[in-house]
Amino acid sequence: MSISIKLLTLLLMVISNFGISQEVLINNSIERVSIGKKIFVYQDNSGELTINEVKKINGFKPSTEEVPNFGISRGNVWIKIEITNKTDGSYFLEVAQPTLDEVAFYDVANDYISIEGDQFNFDERDIPLNHFVFDLRIGKNETKTYYLKVNSSNQVQIPLYIGTYDKIDEVNQQLIVFLSIFLGLMIAMILYNAVIYVFVKDNSYLYYVLYITILMFTQLTPHGYTFQFFWPDSTVFTQYSMFLFPITVGVTGVLFFNSFLKTKEYAPRLIWIFRLYFLFYAISVVLVMINEFKGAYTLIDITAMLVALTMLIGAFIILRRGNKTAIYFLLAWSMFLVGIVFWVLKDTGVLPHNNLTNYTMLLGSGLETILLSIGLANRINTYRAEKDKSRSNEIKALRENKRLISEQNIILEQKVKERTNELLKVNEELEAALNSVMEAQSKLLESEKMASLGQLTAGIAHEINNPINFVSSNIEPLKRDLKDIENLLILYASLDESNFKQKIKEIEAFKEEIELPYLKNELNEIITNIEEGARRTGDIVKGLKTFSRDDHKSKVPSDINKGIESSLTLVQNKLGSIQVETDLKEIPQILCYPGKLNQVFMNIIINAIDAIKLKYENGEGGKLLISSYHEESNQSIVISFKDNGVGIPQNLVNKIYDPFFTTKDVGKGTGLGLSIVYKIIDNHKGQIILDTDEQVGTNFKFILPVVS
Q1: Which of 167, 216, 590, 619 could disulfide-pair with 163, CB 3.0 to 4.6 Å?
Q2: pLDDT score at 188
Q3: Does CATH number 3.30.2160.10 belong to domain 556-705?
Q4: How far is CA 304 from CA 220, 299, 341, 567, 625, in A?
Q5: pLDDT at residue 149, rounded to an integer
Q6: Can you say how many angstroms the Cα of residue 619 is from the centroid of all Cα atoms in its chain?
């Protein structure tokens, strides 16, 4: 029984060994043949096994796929190949997957190692072809065992071929020709649409140029074309470009879709869906940056499928909503979508790895590019037709507008004529009203001036009456004294030789009678009093004349100090016991309206007197300081009126220049004084500075330019 079991076990081992025989036999009929199902594979997830350790492993399994697909692998994939050569020819092993990071070829018998891949510059390859090609160095009737170590951050699919160099090179050249045709087509479309964008400034062309530029590199990169011809020394960029190009082409494709089909207008909800896809792409970028290539590759593939389907469905929706341009996009996108589906299904292992699945995406991209360019060109024609129609409508509208404008012009001219007549009439009325206002204003100023004089009338009359009394009271004494002198002269005239002595005695007696020395003194005193009265009367009249002078229409040079002095002359009787001090410096004449400035000085002096008398009975203890000086630094003169009266409450300071505002009792003020003061100073381009403190006093300071 035990012998039977041993024989059965031995038979099963023989059958098992026969079943796993994967030897590759090279004969004269072989030019280039796939050997995917005649190899042994082993996955080293640790990625740390050496060739010597791998040779001792019994865990190799025979491949069941023509193109072994290991997906995204973190470790190394080891491949064991046993080859027997029955010919005299030289044969090579071709790894037809150009995006592998590292491919190490081990010829164990000859102790030969060759390491290539995207981690190494392209010019470091022993055989400078697009795929990885290794010389088998196997003689006739010789059997050898070879090992391959493969790792990659991308999808690990390993199509393996054995063939002659000429056949491998021929296939490689055919691929390069095909890729070059694709490249030429894409460059032509890029330049064509870029030129159109320069002229039409339509953002759809700009997004399209960006999209097909990135699409071109995206399609060429998986075939190793970009690494071979564009950046053969940039190994790091080559590794990351397999992830970044698909992300970028997805983003630019969405931007073109939105602009070309006016998504915001026809299907605005799609914008939010695309923003979600942008978030997926952003997550993919983060995963790539932290070297989580498997997760990034899977998320990019899923997002690409979602974007493609969303664009397809979105184009149908936009077409149904009236945008006919979507027809071209649907045709183009359908072509590209077929390529994407084949590519993704190939990557996931659903479809086999062959020329159809490898290059359908290139074909789809090329057809998509052509159809979209036609769609953009048709869009120009559509725009042109719409523009022609719009222009025709504009011409019709312009003609209609011209007719309406002509009719309206006739009506408008009539209305303008009527309105002009009305405006002329209103203008005449306004001019008359303005003249009335100006006349009223002039009368108001004059009335205020007369009101100021009215307040001083009694005092001025008294001032004039005093010197007149001097004259009238001295008339009788003057007559009497003159009569005595006349009599004395008569006595002197009656002198002759006959009665000389007698007459002299009479004359001397008459002199004693009239008190001649006293008479002489009295006459001098009477004449002096009359002279003083006349001078005083002259000063008052001169002050009145200066105060009430009629201003010229233009400013004239004037001495401000004289105006101040004349104003003081007119208020002498009103001052009472108030002590007035003047400090009038020598100042230059200024261009001004002297009569108006005199009115300012008079109003301020009267207000100061009233304020002092409210605080001091009869003005005893009151002081008024008037000063003037020249400020050469800014070519102006400064006049100051400072009193120690009741001052102005702070809550009334902002109101004192308002017309008809007064703090005086009814009948004692018009409320126009300070309002007129402000206006006169403003007309002279001057400035008023008020410093007041209740129950302490007020200081009005006026600053007037020398040339105003």
Answers
A1: 167
A2: 85
A3: no
A4: 17, 8, 10, 100, 96
A5: 92
A6: 67
The tokens of 506 are what?
């009479």
User: Domain 19-163 - what CATH class?
Assistant: mainly beta
Beta-bridge mates of residue 163 = 32, 92
Question: What are the tokens at 114?
Answer: 């060759």
How far is CA 381 from each of CA 195, 260, 325, 387, rounded to the nearest angstrom?
A: 17, 14, 11, 9
Matching residue, tokens 């007696």: 509
> 283, 227 in Cβ contact below 8 A?
no
Within 548-648, where are the H helices? Answer: 560-570, 572-575, 594-615
Cα distance between residue 446 and residue 554, in whole Å: 18
Instruction: State which H helix or E strand residue 105 sits in.
Output: strand 102-107
* C-alpha separations of 394 from 224, 385, 386, 389, 391 in Å: 56, 14, 12, 8, 5
The residue with tokens 């006169």 is 680
Other C-beta atoms lying within 10 Å of the C-beta of residue 145? 15
Burial pattern 621-652, b for ≥16 Cβ within 10 A else e, equals ebbbbbbbeeeeeeebbbbbbbbbbbbbeeee
The pLDDT of residue 1 is 34
Backbone Cα Rg of the chain: 61
The confidence score (pLDDT) of residue 358 equals: 66
Cβ neighbours of residue 90 under 8 Å, at least 6 residues apart? 135, 136, 164, 165
The per-residue pLDDT for 699 is 93
- pTM beyond 0.90, yes or no: no
pLDDT of residue 25: 81
CA distance 346 to 339: 10
Cβ-proximal residues to 40 (8 Å cutoff; 6+ apart), any chain: 22, 60, 61, 62, 63, 79, 80, 81
The mean pLDDT values, 10 residues at a time, for the chain of 708 residues are: 39 40 74 87 88 87 85 84 88 88 89 87 85 89 91 83 88 83 85 84 85 84 81 81 86 88 88 91 89 83 87 88 81 75 67 66 73 72 70 81 79 79 77 68 58 54 59 67 73 72 74 72 70 63 56 76 84 82 90 85 87 82 91 89 89 79 64 80 89 89 84
Residue owning tokens 């003005």: 619
d(CA 657, CA 104): 103
* pLDDT of 216: 85
Nearest CA among 442, 446, 465, 464 for reference residue 454: 446
For residue 640, give every residue at least 6 positions away whose Cβ sits within 8 Å of its Cβ, in sequence order, or none: 625, 626, 627, 628, 699, 700, 701, 702
In sequence order, which ranges of 104-234 are alpha helices (DSSP H)?
165-200, 203-220, 225-229
* Residue-wise burial string across 205-225, b where 16 or more C-beta atoms lie within 10 A, e elsewhere: bbbbbbbbbbbbbbbbbbbbb
Contact of 107 with 144, CB cutoff 8 Å:
yes
Q: What is the dihedral of CA 342, 347, 352, 356, to 10 degrees?
A: 40
**pLDDT score for 474:** 66
Whose tokens are 């590519």? That residue is 343
User: Does residue 676 contact residue 445 with C-beta atoms inside 8 Å?
Assistant: yes
pLDDT at 529: 67
Question: Residue 698: what pLDDT?
Answer: 92
